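Class prep. Sample record?

___
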Amino acid sequence: MKMEQERGISITSTVLTFNYEDHHINILDTPGHQDFSEDTYRTLAAADNVVMLVDAAKGLEPQTRKLFEVCQMRELPTLTFINKMDRPAMNPFELCDEIEQQFDLETVPAVWPIGDGENFKGVLKRSERVVYLFEKNQKGKTATAKKVPMDDPELLSIIGQNLYDQLFEDVEILDEMGHSLDTEKLLKGDQTVVYFGSAMTNFGVQIFLDDFLELGRAPAERSSSIGTIDPGRDEFSGFVFKLQANMDPRHRDRLAFIRIVSGRYERGMKVLHSRLGARQINLNQAQKLFADDRESVQVAFPGDIVVCSVVL
């Protein structure tokens, strides 16, 4: 949107879709500005998992606190990505403590940063005891990552004595005093797994995505006027969580964002709208959005988001 470009903020929710390691992932990119928080609250109704993005220099911001209350109310599993470690950042222990104190949420760092800003050397993946070294490239380019075992003597010469000593001291504290991963707590929203990296250079993102596929919750059941609907149900069902009108001058229409709960969407199918007295409507023009671009959808499944131009 032109207004988003002018103000440098997200105003409307966008659905981003991509494939990764034989999985189909839908991202609901929600507005981060407080003036448009209602759109975010509605969008969270369609989410199965939450990724809490934290600026390493700023820590938790007021809007993050407000939105996370809704996530906790819905018991959404939350993974945390602490971003911009290649810039001056708060102490990682302080960042984790802030999350625990503000949200009464246990933090379990899956990776641990080595330095920050100009001295950011990479992250340690704790489960592997392997350091992923950060090598900054040109702006906008993906950073390269060389892997070095934590006990490899080469690591000392690469990151220097101070960071080397700090890393081993931090890891000892985490191992002895930190929380252990509890998947039951994670899925109930009582614990969050924490990652550090730099999204602009794509550093740490692959580690995060790999763990997300393993830890994240699959499309979940939803409550309805006829009871709980399981995603394994054969009959098609879905719900509208957002309406958007005339947000793009090239597409003067009214869009309904639909989260598929069960069954299989097929292009041209007709469904019953329960709120309008079981009136039949045609979902012939279902699309997926990416910024201002639209792509027709032929089939979709539970967990997918489709956008339809319909009269509701």
